[in-house]
């Protein structure tokens, strides 16, 4: 099951995943929400909080995730993974090599740090904001 965390705002969406993610979870909750944000904001930030009961995806959801990642590889500014097991962090780090954005993993107890990292402007954005205020 996957739900949207209440700290989501603007171009940053935070998901809380538990148990096994099904294709229905992915196709009705995750994908439409991220695509809506991409339409509104262009590039977006994602935080995936995998709680201690998270077991992974079913096969169809795993395929949906891979296709979605390739389709939107240029649309993700930052992707934070919180609480993933070692094998999962490794698999996502490999997948992140195909993304334009930045990827970082966080310990299970550092959701606040992951959210702060995801919401922080990228260095090029900080330079643009500074130049615009001069």
Record field, number of beta strands: 7
The helicity comes to 40-55%
The name CATH uses for the topology is: Transcription Regulator spoIIAA
Radius of gyration from the CA trace? 15 Å
Assigned CATH architecture: 2-Layer Sandwich
- The ordered string of helix (H) and strand (E) elements is EEEHEEHEHEHH
Approximate shape: globular
Low-confidence segments: 127-134
Can you offer a commentary on this structure?
This protein is of the alpha/beta class and 134 residues long. It has a single domain, classed as Transcription Regulator spoIIAA. The protein contains five helices and seven strands. Helix 1 runs parallel beside helix 2. The chain starts with a strand and ends with a helix.
Please render the helix and strand layout as text.
Blueprint: E1 2-4, E2 12-17, E3 20-21, H1 23-41, E4 44-50, E5 56-57, H2 59-71, E6 76-82, H3 86-96, E7 102-106, H4 111-119, H5 123-133
Helix pairs in contact: 1-2
Which structural traits does this protein have?
134 residues, alpha/beta, Transcription Regulator spoIIAA, five-stranded mixed sheet, two-stranded parallel sheet
Q: What's the short version?
A:
By secondary structure, the chain is an alpha/beta fold. It has one domain: Transcription Regulator spoIIAA (2-Layer Sandwich).
